[in-house]
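Example A, followed by Example B.
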Amino acid sequence: MALALGADGATVALVARDRAKLLSVREEVEAAAGRAAVFEADVCDEGRILELETQVSRELGRVQILINNAGINIRKNLVDFSLSEWRTVVDTNLTSVFLMCRAFVPHMRGGGYGRIINMTSIMSHVSLPGRTAYSSSKTALLGLTRALAQELAADGITVNGISPGPYATEMNTALIENPEANAQFLANVPVGRWGKPEEIGSLARFLCSEEAGYITGTDLLIDGGWCAR
């Protein structure tokens, strides 16, 4: 998403905890003739988000697009969860979105244009064993998306979810590297393959365009047909 929007001329504020990865993505954005700045932060840390709000605005100007993409999944049965693990999943997938939106929505108001994209999941719509915390957080995030879209509609700010299905990302490395589990998983995907991250970039580019100004408060499945079964 950073690469797609950067290639379209957006100045991208890259936010994460891993500085090395941030610098690597910045190089990719700049190699595509885009502009990006790096901000090391934990998006679950309220105090750090307040600092981030000031830093981003000071260095890059008014924020017009916010993509909430931090996510974590702990796979285990509900009875085996510790409260700490549960809170880690919910705070990362849901509370971080509340904190980021609360910080940056005021910067979007007054310009007649704004875009918020929350990374939901097919687990906002369906679920699997061992996904109680993840599904709960992502379903709640879909509710946040719908409510916030109504709050901000009069300001020209759209709020939408993108629900990826199975994508070849680090979160799914264990499945991808297990031939038997990989085959079983892909048997549930009508298109028969893992998604490509750049396909999500293309969808984000459209949602941030003027042409998508009438799309708000919804969730777009990009799942290879998983939820259509």
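Example B, a separate protein, is given below in the same form.
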Amino acid sequence: MALLAWEQSCPLQVWAGVLFHAAKGVRVRIASGGVTDVGRVRTNNEDCYKIVEPLNLFVLSDGMGGEAHGEIASAMAVETVVKHCLDIEANPAAKVIGPVQPNWSSRTKRLSTAIHLANKNIFKSAEENPDQHGMGATLTAVWIDGAKLSIAHVGDTRAYLLRGGSLLQLTRDHSLVAEQVRRGILTSAEAEESDMQSVLLRALGAQAEIEVDAEEHTLFPRDVLLLCSDGLTRMVTDPEIAGTLQAETNTGQAAENLVALANERGGPDNITVVIVRLEKESKGWFSWLRGNSRKNLGSNGTAGGN
């Protein structure tokens, strides 16, 4: 089933915290920032993201359906995932939905289940409300637990890992042109020029059941994670993204710089960027606290998931 993607406006968020990095036995500071922008052409923003600081959970969704429907779908997707993941301590034995790998951690299983639940909620809402027919959303979520990264994903919102100067796309686009590239029908250059870039093969809310991609990775100090909507990746190349992440270590400013670059190229779509940076903590905890302030400039998508 092919779907035409369009694209909720969430404010700038910047947050920093400290965790113990199990793989290296060193203290690692997690700094994160997120920005969303309507772009230069659209009149409404159907993107939504949330940074949930107590869990080191980061969620980004790109809605589709036109008018306010995409905003409904992306907000529903983000809130469903956040709510289910926040419930892990109160209800650790919650039912797992969808196929899982036996070696997955409980958090990866829960994250995958949360996206299945989001799909069901969006699909049900669209069925019960005729004016919401056709609405849907893409979603990418990453969850950090010590040195382990859980990632789950549907659609063409992307997650990248910058390590040692190399940028690796962790997610696989569920789009028609991406599938054609994988099959050798199109080259990457031809896909970038295709009029079919917006056609999705998978999206939340399109069907009663959905296939969710999920996997796990090991993280190391100095790794940088990027979540973004296609409003960025269609206008800014991977080398430009990598260069921006390397040039600006402040996560909030780096996110703003990437959004600004997409807008300089015309900003035809909504643009949302979430950056997560893992930094080896070389100074004492109190020294770091004195040198860094925590900033939250908005209400929707407030860090903490309240």
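On Example B: The longest helix spans residues 106-128.
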